[in-house]
Amino acid sequence: MHNTNPRLGRLASCSMAALIAAGALAASNAAAQDNPVGATNAGAEGAVVTGVVITAERSKAAATAPSKASIEEVQPESIITHRYIEQATPETGSWMSTTSIAPSVSTFTSNGGGVGETGKVTMRGFQDGQFNLTYDGIAFGDTNGPTHHQASYWPSSTIGAVVIDRGPGAAGDLGPANFGGAIHLFSPDLTDSLHASQKVTYGSFNTIASVTTINTGILPEENGARALLSFDERNSDGELSHSGGQAQNQLAKIEIPITPKWNLTVFGSHNYTRFYQNDGTGPGETWQQVQAYGKNFALTNNPNDEHYYKYNQQSKQTDFEYADLKGDIGQGITVDDQLYSYFYANKTKSANSNTDPEGTNASSLISGASLLPGESKTDLGGYDKLNQYRVSGDILRFNKDWSFGTLKVGGVYEWSTTDRHNLLEDITDDWAPDDKFVKSKFPLLPATTNAKLQENSAWQDYQLFADFYWRPLPGLTITPGFKYVSEHLDVSAADENTAGGSKNQPLIATATDSSPVYFLTGNYKILPYWSIYAQYATSFLYPNISSLYFTGAGAGLQSIQPEKTKTYQAGTVYSRGNFTADADVYRVDATNLLQTCTVLIPGGTPDGAECNVGSARYTGVEGELAYAFDFGVTLFANGSSNSAKQLANAANPAEGITANAPETLANSPRWTDAFGAVFNQGHMQATLVYKQSGSFTGSNGDQFRLPGFDTIDASAAYDFGRFKVKLQAFNLADKRAITAYTPASNAKGLYQTVGSDGAADISTYQFQAGRELDLTLEAKF
User: Can you spell out the DSSP letters for 646-706?
Assistant: First the structure.
């Protein structure tokens, strides 16, 4: 299968324009002075990320280690600084690629070149949607469930540092899903002096990328304000057949000192990506396709085929903005008010399926019952999908310091509006005008004949918190915390596919879930460079919007309960001189475990829904260490042993749930490990990294267990001063292991072409992206 997808467009001209602007700034601000201005990156609990990094890197080993902990931490934590992101992760990477080095974190992508949505991330066996993702302290995610997308919002150039919290944190860690932890992303730092750079990367799969960065430095004529502009553009044919794409990101960050005690940071980012990928059954191949076409098969250049790339395309647009006002109001009281908004639009055209052999199209043929005038039974069916939302909110924090402790109180209020539709289309008729979508608004409009889904939804949620950092003895900090969380969901749909109900029926539903949650943490410094800590915390996960899709399925299904957890963990951190190490143990008990299940509607007919399926337990041991030699080499290693199991639950015939023995939860690697070396000496930098994600199962239970996957990555760079050259290699051994497996309902085992019922087994497999080589040239001004 040849990868001949045409280029989607040339790189935009904003990079050259940005460099011209940088030259103009240099001419007009040559006299700017490097006066220090306080860092304003707001992270978890309003912390200053620069301070977090400095605290973590007090030793030589910690300063050079790819991932390290802070002796101040109260839960297992990994800090990944910009130096490592810049040196060792792909220039065409995403926020996911910046996190992969940490223990208990497993990530993969199936399409080389940094385009498309073929990646996933797990942490301790928790899946995306079970932990928070934040940017500069603001939690964000989809409105139909707090999940995230590999290619949306944040390419790696927009990330200055990452802090991975493997635990709920304190009460002031805000977001919808903190029971599984949080991945905190931070925007790049502003510089005190004028600086600009231009990067150009060319690599495998005909990938070309450009990153332009301009830092104004301190502007005396603007009362010491500083600004950052960044432009990221990329194109790639992709490794998978006819699965190329393009992406662009523009970012602006401005810091304005209002008075010596008040500071305002204004931030805005826009991201656009367009790529070719089937949405009907998602990324991946059947085993029959793997045998026939190889591991790079995805789409074709055949207009008579459901795999035709023009029938399978997605475009996504996002923006993310905030205004963060920090100040000191006296008497030891500081305030931080962060007003924010973010937007996401996913516009997809897709064939119904991509699981047939090339040219057969059985899964995507239009059925006779739904033929419209001018259509034929040999036409291919697909759909037009929209998922578009705007989320806005405000985070307000107050801190009060005393000699014996610090009180932190505050909260967040957030609201959203979402418009979603899914409309059946004749994709071989060039999206015929007769099938065009008529947008529905409140109040409901009559359903269109081709509508599978027309839905408006909204939420309003708030969280109120209080933490007290009590310091009763030198070196000892004990922090009790309390948080109250509440969410109200609304769904108003002209067409909805409800569990157990008739298709294409109206639905109006609401739900409110609220709960108090409690925290208790402690950190004791045995010595200035050695600490121990412990944490107990409860948590609460809001149900997804799909929890309301139960009209017609019986009253028993309308009692979905929020998932709740109790977390117990303890650890130690040692960081002195040339050596740093940390280790921890954890246990997380979950009740009301939410999983996709099969329910029995009146009459005994099975249907899919989201259900409470009992309880689960997550346990494990984690650790990381690094040693820095005096000649510029730092050796590091980290690892984890992780168990994620659904515990036995009682049968619930009303919901179609049968009793089960303890079983491993799907897509939960049994272990992770990483080791390697980082070299920094003079003008030379280099890295060599091995990372492994252990065995996992493709469904709850162990009947579809896979061995896991690993990769060896390397980089080497030489800095000439004004210019820098960097060569990177990812997956050096060119391994193509299975990274994800989605079993079909009739699956009887791995590597099958015929299912248990004699029909085709359409289980899908995803594989590691193959070897990728990238060359980056950088000019600095």
Answer: EPPB--BGGGTBPPB--EEPTT--SEEEEEEEEEEETTEEEEEEEEEE--EESSSSSTTEE
Distance in angstroms (rounded) separating the CA atoms of residues 188 and 184: 13
Q: How confident is the model at residue 179 (pLDDT cuts 50, 70, 90)?
A: confident
Cβ–Cβ under 8 Å, residues 344 and 318? yes
Q: Which tens digit of pLDDT belongs to each residue from 450-481?
A: 777 889 999 999 999 999 999 999 999 999 99
* Residue 471, token pair as written in the block: 């310091």
Tokens of 665: 């939860």
Sign of CA dihedral 292, 298, 302, 305: positive
- Distance in angstroms (rounded) separating the CA atoms of residues 566 and 518: 9
pLDDT band, residue 603 (cuts 50/70/90)? low
Which residues does 191 contact at the CB level (< 8 Å), separation at least 6? 215, 217, 226, 228
DSSP codes, 128-153: TTSSEEEETTEE---SSSS---TTSS
The 8-class DSSP code of residue 19 comes to H
Could you tell me how far CA 309 lies from the centroid of its own chain?
26
Q: Which of 297, 239, 151 is nearest to 731 (CA)?
A: 239
The string of pLDDT tens digits covering residues 15-25 is: 333 433 334 33
Strands (DSSP E) contained in 77-188 are: 77-80, 105-108, 120-123, 126-127, 132-135, 138-139, 161-165, 182-186
Comparing CA positions, the residue from 582, 400, 402, 404 lying closest to residue 476 is 404
Helix (H) or strand (E) holding 274: strand 262-276
* SS3 state of residue 592: coil
What DSSP designation does 69 have? -
DSSP code at position 300? B
pLDDT tens column, 545-586: 877 776 444 434 456 788 899 999 999 999 999 999 999 999
**Higher pLDDT, residue 384 or 26:** 384
Determine the Cα–Cα distance for residues 558 and 284; give it in Å rounded to an integer.
34
Give the whole-angstrom CA distance, residue 380 versus residue 368: 12
**Residue 223 exposed, middle or buried by CB count within 10 Å (0-12, 13-18, 19+):** exposed
The dihedrals phi and psi of 51, each to the nearest 5 degrees, come to: -65, -40
Which of 502, 511, 494 has its CA nearest to residue 558? 511
pLDDT digits (tens, 9 = 90+) for 251-302: 999 999 999 999 999 999 999 999 999 998 889 999 999 999 999 999 999 9
Residue 674 pLDDT exceeds 60: yes
Name the residue with tokens 């940088």: 22
SS3 label, residue 516: strand
pTM of the predicted model as reported, rounded to 2 decimal places: 0.90
Alpha carbon distance 30, 26 (integer Å): 6
Residues 6+ apart with CB under 8 A from 509: 489, 490, 491, 548, 551
Report which of residues 55 and 691 the model is more confident about: 691
Cβ pair 284, 765 in contact under 8 A: yes
| Cross-strand pairs, 424 | 383
Instruction: Pick the more confident residue, 387 or 430.
Output: 387
Query: Hey, what amino acid is at 392?
Result: S
Phi, psi of 66 (to 5 degrees): -60, -35
pLDDT of residue 53: 62
pLDDT at 39 over 90: no
Please answer whether residues 146 and 126 qualify as being in contact, where contact means their C-beta atoms are separated by less than 8 angstroms: no
Reported as a single tens digit per residue, the pLDDT across 692-712 is 999 999 988 888 999 999 999
| pLDDT at residue 598 is higher than 70 | no
Give me the torsion for CA of 419, 425, 428, 430, rounded to 10°. Answer: -50
Contact indicator for 165, 177 with CB cutoff of 8 Å = no
Q: What tokens does 230 get?
A: 């960044």
Count the alpha carbons within 13 Å of 460 in the hemisphere toward its beta carbon.
3
Q: Return d(Cα 26, Cα 461) in angstroms, integer.
A: 46
Query: Which amino acid is located at 753 in the chain?
Result: T
